[in-house]
Amino acid sequence: MPIRSVDPRSGVAFGPEFTEADEAEVETAVARAARAQDALGQAGPPAIAAALRAAAEALDAERGDLVALADTETALGTARLAGEVGRTTGQLRAFADLVATGAHLRPAVSVVPGGAPARDVRKINVPVGVVAVFAASNFPFAFSVAGGDTAAALAAGCAVIVKAHYGHPQTSQRVAGILSATLDRVGLPPDTVQLLHGGTTAGQLLVGHPGVAAVGFTGSTAGGRALTDLAARRPAPIPVYAEQGSLNPVVLAPSAFRGPGSRALAAQLGGAVTMGAGQFCTKPGVLLVPADHREEFSRDLIGVLGTAPPAHLLTAKIREQYEQAVATAAATPGVTGWRGGQPGTGFGAAAAVLSCDQPALVAESALREELFGPAVLVVGVRDVGELRAALRVLGGNLTGTVHGDPSDDWTLTALGVLAGQVGRLIYQGVPTGVAVVPAMHHGGPYPASSSARETSVGTDAIHRFLRPLAFQDFPADLLPSALRHLS
Amino acid sequence: MPIRSVDPRSGVAFGPEFTEADEAEVETAVARAARAQDALGQAGPPAIAAALRAAAEALDAERGDLVALADTETALGTARLAGEVGRTTGQLRAFADLVATGAHLRPAVSVVPGGAPARDVRKINVPVGVVAVFAASNFPFAFSVAGGDTAAALAAGCAVIVKAHYGHPQTSQRVAGILSATLDRVGLPPDTVQLLHGGTTAGQLLVGHPGVAAVGFTGSTAGGRALTDLAARRPAPIPVYAEQGSLNPVVLAPSAFRGPGSRALAAQLGGAVTMGAGQFCTKPGVLLVPADHREEFSRDLIGVLGTAPPAHLLTAKIREQYEQAVATAAATPGVTGWRGGQPGTGFGAAAAVLSCDQPALVAESALREELFGPAVLVVGVRDVGELRAALRVLGGNLTGTVHGDPSDDWTLTALGVLAGQVGRLIYQGVPTGVAVVPAMHHGGPYPASSSARETSVGTDAIHRFLRPLAFQDFPADLLPSALRHLS
Description:
The structure is a homodimer.
Chain A: E1 3-7, E2 12-18, H1 23-61, H2 63-74, H3 78-101, E3 108-112, E4 119-127, E5 130-134, H4 148-156, E6 160-163, H5 169-185, E7 193-196, H6 200-208, E8 212-218, H7 221-233, E9 240-243, E10 250-252, H8 254-258, H9 262-274, E11 286-290, H10 294-306, E12 311-312, H11 316-330, E13 336-339, E14 348-349, E15 352-357, H12 358-363, E16 375-381, H13 384-394, E17 397-403, H14 409-419, E18 422-427, E19 466-472, H15 481-484
Parallel strand pairs in A: 5-6, 5-8, 6-7, 8-9, 10-11, 10-17, 11-16, 15-16, 17-18
Antiparallel strand pairs in A: 1-2, 3-4, 4-19, 12-14, 13-15
Helix pairs in contact in A: 1-3, 1-4, 1-5, 2-3, 2-5, 3-4, 9-10, 13-14
C-alpha cells in the first residue's frame, strides 16, 4: 500500500506517494550499508565527528522549512517542532563532542604477569555493524531519521538504515536528503544513512536480514515486542533496543496536598498530560492519590484538561487506538469517566480523566494499558499497603514520580518500590521533558524497554552499538591507533 | 532422574544421589533469593566486597580437599584444578577490589541549563535483580558455583541461584556450602547464593520464573540457544548471557612456515588442542594453513597429539557427542582422518587430526561444528581469496589467531576479516589460557556468545548484572550515598 502524508488537522492526504520497500530494496540497502560501514571504519572517529557536526549545521540551516513541513504532517505545532529540531542537532553535536574525545572507545590495557615475555592484552570498542533504526511517530526529528538512535549509531561508526514512520514520510525524506548530501560533502558515503518507507513487511525484512547487526526502535510495546521476537528467532539473533510504552506512575502523597495543594498539583500534572496531545512515552498516565483527595483532585484535573487547546493525534490509527483504549478503560467496573468536548476535524481527540480506587486498578489489567493521547487515570489509595500493591502491579516503567515530604511514609514507600521498577525517579516534578544530558537514563524494566540496561537518550546511548574487541600480544603497528600508545 | 557423580577414568558412579529441583523448590529458591537481594541492598558495597574476600579465603583454605574431590568427578588432573581454584579465588578478589572502589556504579551528574532552578539529573548503577547461573561442565570451579558469573552477579549486588552441572555435583555442593557458611559468617543471608541440581527441567523452571531477572550460562551453543529462546518468549523477556561454542580459527600464514616452521607450530598448537582433553571453549579447532604445507603440518600435529597423555572426557554424554562429531566430520567428502589410540577405560577418547582443503570447509557445514574434545581440523588454503572466504564462512567466534609476518598478505587479510567476527585477536600465540585481567574480552559475535557486547571473564563482566537508575531533582538525603556528594 502506498504511503502518503495526512494532515491530522483535516484528515486529508497530501503530497507524493511513497512505496513500501520490498525484498530487493532492502537487499540493496543492506549491501550499500555494508560498503558504507567499511568506508566509515577507514575514515575513523575524527571524520565521523566532523560529519555529525556538519549534519547538525545543515539541519539547523533548514529549520524553518523542516518545521513547517513537519507541522503539516504531525500537527505538533511549530514552537514544539522548532525546539525538537534544536534538540536533534544538539544530540548530533553532543555525539560529535564525545567521538572527538575517543572516550566511547574505552581503550584498556592489561599486562598479564608471570609469562616470559609477559602477555599484553588490550581492548577497545568497535562498531557492531549495520544498524536498523525504526523511527517514532511522536518525534518527527528527535527520534526519527536524524534522531537519537541514528546519531548514536553513526557516532559508534555504524552505517544506518532508517525505516521512516508513515506519519511523516515527507519530513523523513527531506531530512534523509540533507543527511546524505552532508555526508557526501564531507567525503563519507551518502549511503551511510539510508531511508526506507514501509510498514510491517519492510520492517520484518530489515530485522530479518543477516547483514543487520542491531536495531533501534521507539514506539509501542506491541510493536517493539514484535521486532524483538523476530530478531530472537533469527538463525543468528540480534539485539533490538526498543523504547516502548510506559504508564509513568505519579504518587501524590498526603503531604503534597498539605503543601502545594490539589489545584497546583493538577495544573502541573495536567500540563504534562496534554503537552504534545499526550503523545509522549513519558506522559504521566496513572496518578496515585490519597483516597480522600481523589474526587477533588479529579475535579481540579478536569478543570485543567477542559481548558487545554484542542488535541490532534498524529495518525488515524493512533486516534482509533486512543478512542478504543479510553472507552475500554471507562467501561471497566469501578471507573468514573470524564471526556472533554470533541474537536470536530481530522484526528481530533477529546481529553479524558478517568478515576477509580486502588482495588479496581489491581484487579483490572485494562486499567494498566497505556492511553497514548491526552488521557489520565486517577487512582484513590487508602494507605501505604495499598500504595505498595498498586505500584507493584504497575510493573516496569520508564519513570516514576513522587510528590511528598521526605518524612512522609508514602514518599519513602513509593520511592522504595519504584526504584526497583523504573529507569528514572523524579521528585516533585513531571516525567515529561526528558533532558538530553549525559546523566539522563531513558529506558526501564520491561515493558518500558526491551533492555533496562540501555538508554535511548544521552550520549551513553552509543554503547548499544559498540562491542569490545581484544588484542593479545600485538605488535604496535598492527594495533588500532587508540591502543598503540596505551600503557 | 537422580544425579550422581561418575568417575570419568572408570565410568563408575559414586557418592550420594542428588534430586532434580522441581517447581516447588525453584519457587522457594526464588523467594529466598528475593529476600537475600533486599538484605544485600541494605548491606551495601563494602559488605559485599568483604563477603567476596571472605569467600576467596575460605575456598583457598579448602583447596586441597576441593581439588581432590573435583578430580574424581572430572579427571581434569590435580595440577590444573589447583590452578583453577586459584583463578576462581583471584576472580572473587578482583571483584572485591572493584566493588570497594565503587567504579562499577558509574555515578554521573548533569545540571540541566535553562531552568529556574536548574534541573539536576544524576544516575548510578543498581543491581538488575535475582540472577540464575548455569554452571559449565569444563570448569568445575572458575565457571561454576563460585565462578565468574556468580562473582560478577554478587559483586553487582544480585542474589544468585546456581544450577549445578551434573558432571560435578559433589564439588558444586561442597563449594555452595562454603559460600553459604561464609556469607552467614560475615552477616549476609546464606541464601544470597543458592544451589539447585537438575537438568533441562530445572533449568527451564528457573529461566521461566518471573522473579529471575537475568541469566549467566557457559556451555554449548545448543544449550545456550535453548535458554535464550525460552527467556525471549517470557511475558517479560530477560537477558541470557550465554558463552557458547567456538571454533577459534587459527591462520598460519606462509611466512609462519618460513619462520618458526611446521614442527614448532604443531607443538604450540597441538598443546593447546590437547590441554584439558580439548575441553576448552577457546580450543583452536580449525587451523588454516597454506595448501602446500597441509600434509607436512598435519603429520607434525599427529606427532604431537599421538604422544599426548590419554584423555578422559568429562561425562558420558560429552564423550558420545565427541565421538559422533568426529565420525561425522571424518566421513565428510574430502576429509582425511587420523585417530589416536583408544584409551580403554571410562570416558576415554582418542585424539583426532582431520584434514581437508578449503572448498570442502566452505561446502560442508558438518566441518564447521565444534569438536569438543582433543580434535582439530587442518584446512589447506591456496591463496588469500580462499583464506578470506574460509574465514567468512567460519562466522562468529570467541577468538581468532594469526601467525605470520606483519608484511605477509595473509596476515593482514586474516586480521581484517577476523576483526569483524571475533571477540579477541591473538597474534603468534594460542587462544587457550584466557588471562583474567580487566582488558580481557571473552565473548564474541553469535554463535560464540549470545551478546557480542559482553564478556564473561574479567571485571567488566559485572555490567551484565547492573542497570542505570536516574534521579531527577532529588534532595540530597533521599539520594544513594554515592550520588549525594557528586557535583
